Amino acid sequence: MGYIELMDISKSYNKQRNVLNGIDLQIEKGEFFVLVGPSGSGKSTLLRMIAGLEEISGGTLKISEKIVNHLPPKDRNLSMVFQNYALYPHLTVEQNILFGLNAQKVDREIQQKRLEETAQMMGLNELLKRKPRELSGGQRQRVALARAVVSEAPLCLMDEPLSNLDAKLRANMRIEIRRLQKRLGLTMVYVTHDQVEAMTMGDRIMVLNDGIIQQVGEPIDLYNKPSNLFVATFIGSPKMNLGKAILEDSNLIIENVLTIPFEHLEMPKNLKSRNLVIGIRAEHMPYGDENQQVQNVEIVNVEHLGNETLISFEVGTELWTAKWLGQWLIQVGDKVPVHISVENMCFFDEDTGNLIQEATFTHKQEVVRR
Amino acid sequence: MSMSNPGIPSSTEITEISFENVKKKQRVKSFTKGMLFLLPSIVLFGAFLFYPLFKTMYLSFFLTNARGETTVFVGLQNYIEMFTSPIFHQSMKSTFLFVLYTVPTTIIIALLLAVLANEKLKGIGFFRTIFSSTMGISVAAASVFWLYMFHPSIGFLNQILSLFGVESIGWLTDPKWALIAVAVTTIWMNLGFTFLVLLGGLQSIDSYLYESADIDGAGYFHKLRRITIPMLSPTLFFVITVTIINAFQTFGQIDILTQGGPQNSTNLIVYSIYREAFTNYQFGTASAQAIVLFIIILIMTIIQFKLGERKVHYQ
Amino acid sequence: MTMPLSKKIVFYSLLIISALAVFAPALMAFVMSFMDNKDIMTGSLPKSLSFDNYLKAFEQFPLLKYLFNSLIVSVVITIGQLILSSLAAYAFVFLEFKGRDILFFLFIATMMVPFEASIIPNFHIIRDLNWIDQYPGLTVPFFATAFGTFLLRQNFKQIPKELREASQIVGMGDFKFYLKVVLPVAKTSLVTLGAYGFLTSWNMYLWPLLSTTNDTVRTVQIGLKQLQTQEQLNDWGVIMSGAIIVIIPTLILLFLGQKQLQKGLTEGAIK
Ligand SMILES: Nc1ncnc2c1ncn2[C@@H]1O[C@H](COP(=O)(O)OP(=O)(O)O)[C@@H](O)[C@H]1O
Ligand SMILES: [Mg+2]
């Protein structure tokens, strides 16, 4: 049994088209759970239904084994952090932090004790007497977090809490929120549209698109075994390279231009005579040396990232990108050999977009488990 | 593993039914709450606006005694009398003339003042305050000020006239001039409000429009005609309708300056209602006139909403 | 970009001339209020200035009583309007319930009914309630205002919905949220509406004329009319001093709040 259970949850506004459909999900106690998806996919709606701010149109929602569909937010024992922080502009930082405890008529002494602890933890001691407009974006963010922390609710919901911060601050806050969650043992449901944030923060991730769950799993699994084309392109940067492909004899023909032999590998039976889409990650297309089978491709773009170089080339109508370690001094227009191997490829059904077979190579080498 | 489906418990149907109950209860609760917040306003609107309006309609079909109690049902008789009465004709004519005298003049003067006061000059705040000052001056005070201005012998206007050797005018006693005198007072009184609203409209025009016109080398009047007036159209429209509605509701100036005279030339509709009801105690005919006033204002407001919505570009 | 000097001169002359023209009636009244009646009647320039007219006005008329009544009436109306319209605006912005849109239309509809058109039954209501010559009769009918509700509604709409949601999560009810968050956050627009309400109530004329028959609750506007009609000697200095006293409170209010009022009027009215 999970801590939060969503059973066949759906949502429609004003009896129109469903914004969310058939959401089945379990979130474990103490888990950092990330909801990720493009904007408009229904993440906020789902989070707000868990919070009780939005009516649930269909299905059952349980929090710690109790059905809570009908309960108002305050009876669900949770805290929430909003994208715009929702700080009360007329109150000081201290009053903002204590706002909830005051509303719940918590004893004054306990309030003060919790305030001190929280302010200490969030490094807000110096700012307690300031108004929100006298704070920087990062400081406001901290106050919003402090408000969630001080409530001591076991469940914390966050809706894109970092999207108003600049990139550097965001990276810091990611780590800080993560540490806070572990330290307090919070169950976290965290909404973001940024897949990097999702990958770096989540214990588990749910990818949502158009109101439908695409995949739920650990970050690594989403990366290695995207269950469909949407997840394949949404997770990971640069995004997975895709190409239409068919099997012919013992070769894989991609976009009618690349012919890749299966070599010594056994050709899986379930790939035969179907329209395929193959996906391959940028880091799985290294510079080809003599001992390997290589494809010679013409470079159309080079990006230097420092210790890595991104090389783009055309495969039929698709633009593929390979990521090579080190600094490669290559010019646009150069022809370079690239090693593209079948064992690094994920195979998808072209019609349904679903994964047929994941890359075999990753199992052997890259994942380090301890 | 990704799409785990924990199987829906068999109790779902039962719980769903109770959810419906809870939802219904919540709906009733939020309705009650909404009504509680609105109740004070609704009750007062009901008691002092809607009920009296319907009562007015009702009264307009009756004769009444001096206490305002209905005595005889007369059907449309009050309306027929009203529309055949030369005094009411005079009153309507004066009212519409008054609107014609006051509305365009008020707006043109206020607009000129607003354009002047919109320049970024040192000390402009002082001038803005002066121009808006008449908004803070009550009808009674303004009327008293102008009562002096229009005074036949010591009044400022006639003194000026006599400086130029012009014969003095019976501003408030000559039927030819009285309505104009009341109109002048009204224009002066309404300048402050109209100016303030128009200035607000002018200030909300984006300055980049002027900057790009400056780059094109447009002159002052060109900018005024091509940018200021069109961009100001929503505000102008609002001001026009409000000024018209206000003009139809004129009362205090009349009561102090002319009491509807001379020869009923300033007996504007609200004053006419007042006199009919509270000095002649003819509540029935007064109510019929009040209904006419209501219909006029109703039409004006509907025009404002209808045209306003389409034409006015809200920021 | 600075204006060339010649243009500046043109503008300043225009400004000064029009300011003089606009302010002339008030200015003359102000000067007259310090003038000797003889000087006024002969139309000569003031030979001496004194407070005699003011003293006379206060002696011969219960002006202080009138001023006090006006103050009470205006303050009560202002507070009543602030309470009622902020409650109503809250419901229109933060509450969702069946019938809300119909009620909103009802509020719009009130703008189509001029008070003057319903003044006869209103007078009878007040009379039947025994509210003639009573403060309630002068104030209660004006508590509900559509303009005020719309103005505050515009302002409340700018308060992020998340503030309400954050308070819902900690279990704060609507009324408490209205008191503790909405009213303090919308303070400036409340002040604007308050100033506007005070201004218009202070300047009310027709209704106080009807609903007062003696000096107990008579407001200063009607008092000024009394002063003007009863001043047998036609003592203009006294009349003008009365008028100046009447306009001073509202002029001060206007001078202090001109910017606010200007913004409020445009917001509530046009958007
Ligand atoms: N109050 C509402 N009324 C109607 N539609 C809404 C409302 N809120 C959100 N939606 C719609 O629901 C969909 C999902 O919205 P949301 O949950 O905010 O997406 P996300 O947070 O993933 O960007 C969107 O198509 C949006 O237009
Ligand atoms: Mg969202």
UniProtKB/TrEMBL annotation, chain A:
Keywords: ATP-binding, Cell membrane, Membrane, Nucleotide-binding, Translocase, Transport. Residues 4-235 form the ABC transporter domain. One of its GO terms (molecular function) is ATP hydrolysis activity. GO terms for cellular component: ATP-binding cassette (ABC) transporter complex, substrate-binding subunit-containing. One of its GO terms (biological process) is carbohydrate transport. Gene3D superfamilies: 2.40.50.100, Nucleic acid-binding proteins, P-loop containing nucleotide triphosphate hydrolases. It holds the Pfam family OB_MalK. PANTHER family: MALTODEXTRIN IMPORT ATP-BINDING PROTEIN MSMX, TREHALOSE IMPORT ATP-BINDING PROTEIN SUGC. This is Glycerol-3-phosphate ABC transporter ATP-binding protein. It comes from Ureibacillus sinduriensis BLB-1 = JCM 15800.
UniProtKB/TrEMBL annotation, chain C:
GO terms for biological process: transmembrane transport. It comes from the Bacteria. One of its GO terms (cellular component) is plasma membrane. Keywords: Cell membrane, Membrane, Transmembrane, Transmembrane helix, Transport. The keyword Membrane applies. It holds the Pfam family BPD_transp_1. It is a multi-pass membrane protein. InterPro entries: MetI-like, MetI-like_sf. The chain crosses the membrane at residues 12-35, 71-95, 102-126, 138-156, 177-199, 236-256. Its main location: membrane. It is found in: Cell membrane. CDD domains: TM_PBP2. Residues 67-257 form the ABC transmembrane type-1 domain. Belongs to the binding-protein-dependent transport system permease family. This is Glycerol-3-phosphate ABC transporter permease.
